[in-house]
Amino acid sequence: MIEAAVAGANALTRRWAGTVGSGDSVAVSGAGVWPLLAYLAPAADGAGGDELAAAIGLPAADATEAASALVGLLGSAPGLRAAIGAWVHPRLQLRAQWRDSLPPGSVGVLGDPALLDAWVREQTGGLLDKLPITVDAETLLVLASALVARTRWIQPFDDGMLVATTGPWSGRRLAGLHRTTAERDLLAVYETPAGPVTVLTVEGADGIDVDVAIGVPEAPAAAVISAAIDAPAAVPARRGSQLAEGDTAPGVTVDLGWAYDDSPRLLVSLPRFTVTSSHDLLAHAEVFGLLTVSDLSTQRLSGVSDFPLGVGAAAQDLTASFTADGFEAAVVTAFGMRAAARRRRGGRCRCGCCWTGRSRSWRGTVRRAWCSSRAGSHRASRRPAEARRRQASRR
Length: 395
Prior knowledge:
This protein is 23% helix and 33% strand.
């Protein structure tokens, strides 16, 4: 099951990377989104369930077990941490089966949004400081994941300067990292449909390695990312030790230089970087299988609650830093579920959201809410019987 979960998360990252423009500097994590999709897949109705199952690459019946396995794997190494959190509106009743499918201790009461931001800071060690979605009065359920990876290099780099001679940074002086090693096979070149891709493996402590990939200038970002994802299991066309003087590859030249002995060595120079990204997942809802379940015109998640729900917001925040001493990254992904409209009967509101607001008026307590389903917007009001009787007596 874990193999299928890892393959599904990697495939999701590939598809997502295909939506990234070639000139953008972004970071994405399919592993941050995948467990949330898997927890929702068995609970979604009809086409929504089919789309989620296709997005995760597994039958809905296997999704919950796979999600738990992936979260467990991502939190198994000393340098990794993974957590799932769910917060439920006090008046929303979850189905016991769905609640029990989430990790033990992960379900709380939805209240002050500051408490959810505190959870983000706690789970990411302060690398991120808030939930990527806005929690407001219409939010009935929040489902979130937090992933962290931290490692220190077995062989650190030296800080220095780097002058780019080609590419979008050509001519600019950059903060650079440099080191020399005898382990030339940390470098490998892979042949892909988009041309050769060079992958450098930087070994970290605790068994965590980071692969840095570069392709030819015209190669799509998705092709380069796919090569990096596949590198651990793929057979390279050439390893570093197989490169001879005069050979070239993306980001690589082989030449003679000054040294204390005749042993071939790998000289590595690359930029020091920090990348931060924020993504609205509903902007590419079809990639994540969220197209139908984000349509709030009717119940979409009957396996979560009898109350009609849909995904009203979905977003991810990510930060990643590659430095002389090591690598650290944190990603938080969150879905916000909102009320979906029930079918209207006899002109009366059946959206189920009328209890979400309450105001006082001289006529008595009136429960009100705006229904903002895609079927149309209307305001629903419902006066308690006592208020109606008081109004009738005044007449």
